[in-house]
Design goal:
With about 180 residues, the protein is of the alpha+beta class. It has one domain. The protein has 3 helices and 9 strands, in the order αββαβββββββα. The two termini are about 25 Å apart.
Length: about 180
């Protein structure tokens, strides 16, 4: 049961990190350069180890991510706001998933053509003792080049080689145990 909770929380954290801000915010993130992006995610005070994943994307997929993720985001987030700043973007959200309520503030800098960094501070309540409290998550993303021949836009390659496509968001949502999604 503990391993399932940790996996659920890891998936939930990953989804929350990757969910673009929807129409609730005044601004939107720019479209990333098409191709293969590597994203390294590290979280302080967490049972989750550093995670590196890759995503193949194109302009259409990046635009669709806002609308594809919106149904899940609406279900798990009561607030999602993003604003353009002089140095990049700032995002604030309040979400609940896997029995954990997460309030976060993120700062995103970079050019979305070769590299960007997201530093997110969050406060979590609920879940296991290791999941509660204040956390800092850093996502460092860099463009690697063209997608690999066996990849299509929207493909994520997770640690261990597991491959998912963002267009299958309902399948990702189904990996979270029933009753663990929660609207704040």
């Amino acid at each position: 049961m503990m391993i399932r909770r940790i996996l659920s929380f890891g998936l939930a954290s990953c989804l929350l990190t990757l969910l673009p801000a929807g129409p609730a915010g005044a601004d939107e993130l720019p479209i990333r350069k098409p191709g293969l992006w590597e994203m390294k995610m590290q979280r302080s005070n967490s049972p989750m180890p550093e995670m590196t994943m890759q995503q193949c994307t194109d302009e259409t997929t990046d635009k669709e991510m806002s609308t594809a993720a919106t149904p899940l985001a609406k279900e798990i987030c009561s607030k999602r706001d993003i604003q353009k700043t002089a140095t990049g973007y700032v995002s604030d959200s309040v979400c609940g998933v896997a029995g954990v309520s997460i309030t976060s503030h993120s700062e995103i800098t970079g050019d979305f053509n070769s590299a960007y960094t997201m530093m997110s501070t969050s406060h979590s309540e609920g879940g296991t003792a290791a999941m509660k409290g204040d956390h800092v998550t850093t996502v460092e993303a860099k463009w690697l080049g063209a997608c690999k021949p066996d990849q299509k836009p929207g493909d994520f390659v997770m640690p261990g080689g597991m491959k998912m496509n963002i267009h299958d968001m309902d399948k990702l949502k189904s990996l979270i145990p029933k009753g663990m999604l929660k609207q704040n």
